[in-house]
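Question (not urgent): is this output format expected?
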Amino acid sequence: ADEPGTTLAPQTTTSDYNREIEDEAMRSGLDEVTEKASMASVIALIVGSTVGAGALALPAATAPSGIVPAGGALLGVWIMLVCDALLIAEVNLKMMRERDEERLIHGRGHSPVVIPLNEMAERTLGEQGQVLMSSIYGAVSLTILVAYSNKAGDLLNGVTGIDAAVVATAFTVVFAGLVCVGGTKLANSINQTLTY
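Got this back:
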């Protein structure tokens, strides 16, 4: 017998929930459970793209202005980024909670899938906001790619003596080729190896 105050998951029927859509998604490999992203890969992506490219270069770039202005600017940017991260986490958790409630209603349980940034932007800013956010994220990613290629060219030029532009191009071609051949799994492994 059920104890008073406990609730059971609602019983669903085919008319309550369209199982055909879920079955088709599972057959075509689009089910959320098949697209897991590990916490280590997410951390490596964030560390590699933000901390590695930006935060480590900021003290050297701001040093000529003096310790007080540079420290104040870095502290201000840090506070802004912490607030930004907390807002993104709040939106992400709210969307995960809503998604899981929907899944529980239909007897599917918690989904381990990470909610992408573009979905969060669409949900909070609308379709135009999503396009703007995706454009900005793409521009930042391109800038990071160019910065890494340029720095790799400088470092490898010092080691090999070959022209920096040639070495940077070779570096980019080799790593781009590895990613093209190995796909996202290899890219994730390379990113984690270089980050950790």
